[in-house]
Amino acid sequence: MTVTVEVELVAILERIEGKIDDSRKELEQKIEKVEQKVDDTRKELEQKIEKVEQKVDDTKKELEQRIEKVDDQVDKLVVDVKEVKGEIKALEAQVGGYDTRIKNQEFLTRTITVALGGAFFASVLRLLFPALGNI
Fold it and tell me: What are the backbone angles phi and psi of residue 129, rounded to the nearest 5°?
């Protein structure tokens, strides 16, 4: 009976070992599937991260170009403002010259008007008083 019990125990142990081996194989397969899924997910995430990084780099380059354009435009505006300031100073000098000319012309016009008025007055007096003309 001991032999039968031993044989039965060996058979039971072999079945248990078989079940353990089967369970271990199933567990290893599941672990491999999970590892494969993790690897696939990691690869997908890395690809998405690379795409996002590329988009960020492209956007950064585009913004840098726009900033350079704005800087160039600002520089041009600064130069234009300096030119306009120079032109304004030149115009102020010209206006100052015209102002003196106008003042001189006004003085000349007043002088001529007074002289003509005096001549006219003298002519009227001669017409009204012809005897004054011999004096």
Answer: -125, 85
